[in-house]
Amino acid sequence: MINSLSFDNRFAGLGESFFAPMKARPLPDPHMVTASTSAAELLDIHPDWLNSDEALNIFSGHQVPDEAEPLSMVYAGHQFGGYSARLGDGRGILLGQVRNSKGELWDIHTKGSGKTPFSRFGDGRAVLRSCIREYLASEALHHLGIPTTRALCILGSTEPVRRETMESASVLVRLARSHIRFGSFEYFAHSKQPAELKKLADYVIDTHFPDVAEAEQPCEALLLRIATETAGMIAHWQAYGFAHGVMNTDNMSVLGETFDYGPYGFMEAFDPGYICNHTDEQGRYAFNQQPSIGFWNLRALAYAMKDLLSGELTEQLLETYQTRFFEEYDRLMNKKLGLRVQMEDDRQLMGDLLGLLQKHAIDYSIFFRKLADFTQSDDESALYAPEEAKADFREWLEAYKARLKAENSRDEERAQAMKRANPKYILRNYLAQQAIEKAEAGDASEVEKLIGILSHPYDEQPEHEDYAAEPPEWGKHLEISCSS
Ligand code: AMP
Ligand code: MG
Questions:
Q1: Nearest atom (ligand 1) to Cα of 251
Q2: Does residue 321 belong to any structural domain of this protein?
Q3: 250 alpha carbon – ligand 2 mean position (Å)
Q4: Residue 377: how many CB atoms within 10 A of its CB?
């Protein structure tokens, strides 16, 4: 069956300055924890195959498919602002690239496959907890419509791994159209390998952005395209209340897809300064910093690419990034409010509302979802807010109603459109935590149930109403660390 995967290992063709050929250290006595049928389709594989011994052996590292050319990629990166000259896949292996029947190229990457030349002090492993977190988040973001890598399956084992406590070694099988990061460019620039830097740029253009090759200055066009894609991705994060947590340049995909999930979080009570990563004490990657950090990272990329450019591009980069960010952010936020067209004061209207949500610590996702059913003959009593806060919304509601009237908005139509823009189900931290704890005790059914619910985040699913509720008190203050 695996022979039906048609490998097309283009990255391996770049040569060994770009990676180290690598064989996995097999997971002892592995088992399949969970697998995604929708991700399986991307590789044209039958979901049943994922339950076969062959799949288990391949992804756990006991067997290498004939046409695979497993390797660990080299890259560098700015981590919390400081430059690390050599990172690379310290526990990851690009098993190979597969071209599906639609012509799409998908990287199959296994995370947690043992030590590599890039492991530094790490043990080369990933724990079950962090594999589940990435699996849940990447599939949840995908179904929300946020650009992201995907996840195919998780393999578990009884091999003990030490983090804050003893955990078990697992492998996450990640699918992505590319694993090239901003930090890949930084590596070749700062280690003074200009020919490789150019080769990498040409590869990215050729493989992912072929239209850019037509531009007068293809490398400049590439940089600006990456800025555009990154801005679009971050606009989605801001609109959906998603905080990535570790926006280091080695975790930024050149495709503008959400990449390398660690201590991420969906915002619950609205708080622009939300810090999901408990170890990020300065709040460098706080929710409201994400748009400017995105640009900071692009500048690091531009600096790495500077010898490929005809001159200083900072202003054009900023212009491109900002324009795309606001275009996408305004579009998404207007959809959240159920507004069909854009008018001059819409940003103000949204800003005022966010101020009220922050002031009263109101659940971001639930508020918007419930606003869908608000009708123009309702008053503030119909809003999702604590009773004592409702009077505070009166003035804003008048403005909102006037704005709806200005475009002849019809309540029923608006409700329908808003329910397609405002998810009922998001991946709340406590839901992930419950699923993880159960899986750690040997039962992955809650992971599967959550994936089932989060695969249809905009549907009502009345039988799962409790998954749409605010977290219980204990679930509001979970501390998510960087360890993975
Ligand atoms: P991450 O925090 O997962 O984005 O990883 C940052 C860098 O540390 C990458 O180069 C990883 O490959 C490496 N790394 C993270 N955890 C481990 C580990 N357990 N063993 C080896 N390398 C690791
Ligand atoms: Mg990373």
A1: 4
A2: no
A3: 6
A4: 8
Q: Which ligand is nearest to the CA of 92?
A: 1
Residue of 250, 260, 280, 363 marked active site: 250
What is the pLDDT averaged over residues 430-455? 98
Q: In ligand 1, which atom is closest to the CA atom of 89?
A: 12
Is the pLDDT at 237 greater than 80? The verdict is: yes
265-297 tens-digit pLDDT: 999 999 999 999 999 999 999 999 999 999 999
Task: Identify the DSSP state of 338.
Answer: T
What is the number of domains present in the chain?
2
463 CB neighbour count, 10 Å cutoff: 8
Buried b / exposed e along 149-168 (16+ C-beta atoms within 10 A):
bbbbbbbbbebebeeeeebb
Q: Is residue 46 part of a domain?
A: yes
375 Cα: distance to centroid of ligand 2 (angstroms): 45
pLDDT at position 312, please?
A: 86
Active site residue 411: no
Asked if 233 and 147 count as a contact pair (C-beta separation under 8 A), the reply is: yes
For residue 1, pLDDT over 80 is answered with no
pLDDT at 482 exceeding the cut of 90: no
Reading phi first (left if > 0) and then psi (alpha if -120 to 50, else beta), residue 146 is in beta
Q: What are the pocket residues of ligand 1 if the criterion is a CB atom closer than 6 Å to any ligand atom? A: 87-92, 118-119, 122-125, 251, 260, 262, 484
Q: Residue 479: its pLDDT value, please? A: 85
Residue ranges with CB less than 5 Å from ion ligand 2: 251, 260
What spatial distance separates the first Cα and last Cα of the chain, rounded to whole Å? 32
Question: Does some domain include residue 65?
Answer: yes
Amino acid at 19: F
Residue holding tokens 């324009």?
323
Last residue of a domain, which of 145, 164, 182? 182
Query: Which ligand 1 atom is nearest residue 125's CA?
Result: 19
Of the three residues 421, 444, 478, the one that is the final residue of a domain is 421
**Model-level pTM greater than 0.85?**
yes
In a domain, 225, yes or no: no
Q: Which domain holds residue 53?
A: 2-182
pLDDT for the residue 45 = 93
Which residue's alpha carbon is nearest to atom 7 within ligand 1?
Answer: 87
pLDDT tens profile 56-104? 999 999 999 999 999 999 999 999 999 999 999 999 999 999 999 999 9
Ligand 1 pocket test, pick from 75, 83, 119, 181 with the greatest ligand atom count within 8 Å of Cβ, gives 119
